Amino acid sequence: MQTHFTTEQLRDPDIASSNRELRTCVHCGFCTATCPTFLLLGDELDSPRGRIYLIKDMLETGRPATEDVVRHVDRCLSCLSCMTTCPSGVNYMHLVDHARAYIEQTYKRPWPERMIRAALGALIPNPSAFRVALAGAQLARPLAGLIPGQGMLSQRLRAMLRLAPASTPSPSPIERPAIHPAIGPRKARVALLAGCAQQVLAPSINEATIRLLTRLGVEVVIAREAGCCGSLNHHMGQHDAAMARARANIEAWNAEIGVGGLDAIIVNASGCGTTIKDYGFMFRAEDAPLREKAERVSSLALDVTEFLTRFGYTPSRPAPDLTVAYHAACSLQHGQKVTADPKTLLKAAGFRVVEPAEGHICCGSAGTYNLLQPAIANQLRDRKLGNLRATRPDLIAAGNIGCITQLGGDTLPVVHTIELLDWMAGGPRPEPLKN
Asked: Which superfamily is assigned to 9-106 in CATH?
């Protein structure tokens, strides 16, 4: 794709990066075949290729974002299926993230939307605040059906109440800053991202991760001052908040590297893992010391299933005679290119693993997407659940808390992959399977 940025514009590292991606695109349209919003809406501007044209024009002219551009960019899930499909290697993730930050800098959204986005960006990354917000949502949950109207504000309010869990687990002490020693001789030392929303919605995931790793001889560190990875803010264009959260993690984990060394930084929420692996790019324009720390963190980041595949996993219980439908989170299969490891580990644990049709298509969670674009998200959820049910499984396994929340509430239990692996290696039976 031909671009026409000025020399002055190209001095901006974000413009320079977007220019490279734009010039890599060859207009082939392969991306439209796997784009969920194009699949549902059939609008070229709701495909990666269409959005690329809109982003190019917006950035080249330097004009503030228009309502039309904002609408189509907002509809993008950042599922990154287009990056798997693209034969030219366009890094659409970097391009759309830049566009979102530019939109937030130049476009004034209606005040209700500004309030919702500000609240989501402040509450969800803060576990204490998120827990309080969920308590309020749980009280108001029965009133969701009474919210009138079909406007976007009404849809979003209903979605926020309906997605709130009926109850919230008690805080887990295991997620506080601490060192969890290896059982037996120490074979490795890792840091675990405790995260934000996940530790409120499903603390059992981190508990299972720590149990399994320490049982395998891995010392697990929950680093002081580490917290939200920044991805939620990042994908809403809230650049400064995202960078601040990422910087805190970078400093916390580098401090642990200095104290006792780290063999890996383990992430069990794949949306977070995609962002942490991109810290090196996010901090590419910073001064050398911080840039190098960010690159070090990115190089050490691994999804928990990647680590277990490299480190070695062996079950200790007999095969459970259960069929698991594996749901491949977009951030894991498209963002991190981790596709075989979770399925291989589940099979090694003794499960029969089946995969749904359209496994590459998003479930509609996508961070805050199911709250901000509920109509599209619900269509994708129903489509995904239909394909999962067609495999006739006993349960669904997934590696991302967003997907687990989105697909939950159906008749099929949804369990994190690591909880199943921990169970088969001596841990407790996952709560959703006890009924």
From this structure: Alpha-helical ferredoxin (1.10.1060.10)
CB-based contact 229:270 (threshold 8 Å): no
Residue corresponding to tokens 């401090």 = 255
Beta-carbon contacts of residue 401 (< 8 Å; ≥ 6 apart): 195, 197, 198, 201, 202, 205, 269, 271, 416
Give the contacts of 49 (CB within 8 A, at least 6 positions apart): 25, 27, 29, 31, 32
In angstroms, the CA 427 to CA 304 distance is 16
Give the model confidence (pLDDT) of 103-140 as tens digits: 999 999 999 999 999 999 999 999 999 999 999 888 88
CA distance 134 to 131: 5
Task: Yes or no: say if 79 and 90 are a contact pair by the CB < 8 Å rule.
Answer: no
Structure tokens at 67: 């309502």
Pick the CATH number of 315-433 from 3.90.76.10, 3.40.50.1860, 3.90.420.10, 3.40.50.300: 3.40.50.1860
Mean local confidence (pLDDT), 146-160: 84
Residue ranges per structural domain of the chain: 9-106, 315-433
Q: What are 335's two structure tokens? A: 């963002």
Helix (H, G, I), strand (E, B) or coil at 202: coil
